[in-house]
Model the fold of this input.
Amino acid sequence: MDTAEFFTKIRNYGDLSAEGERAWAALLRPRHYARDEPFIRAGDVPTHYAFVVEGLFYQHYIGPEGDLIAKHFFPENRIAASVSATLTGTPSAFSITAIEKSHVLEYDFPAFKALVGRFPDLAAIYIAYMERHWIIEKEPSEVAFRHDDAMQRYVDFIRAEPELHKRLKQHHIAAWLGITPESLSRLRRTIAMTRPDQR
Done:
């Protein structure tokens, strides 16, 4: 993906002036990640965001009992970031790691934030992106984790993200649901018997 295609995607979130595009384009740096290569390690103070051109990342941490817990997935056309840590300049509580061989466009967030202060159109796009993907999309899943059982969360995930579901390994899905891979296998057997359309 060249920068022209990147900005075509970005304009889904609002109008962008030629001046704003040039300023943001000057920050973009292409980078490739191998499978299982970290973009951010827990404990590091992150400074960059990464637009996923191709591939897949996930945000995760190790729980108190040594279990893998997945918080969020970043497929193509999403921006991978440890947002709160980057905003506050504090160590990230999470790692972000490539699940697949991936290609991204990285940019320095403090430099981008300075552009947001200069270009109102960039500010509007930034707000629109964060509202859609970090508030509107995340709130229902956070509510579901409090009220729905693992079976319902899994069925809802398959319905909402059928293509992403096909790309994930069983242990990644289990880590996102908050169950063991063995428990996920039992859920899948139950679904196969009772809800064949959701396999």
Summary: The CA atoms of residues 154 and 177 lie 7 Å apart. The radius of gyration is 18 Å.
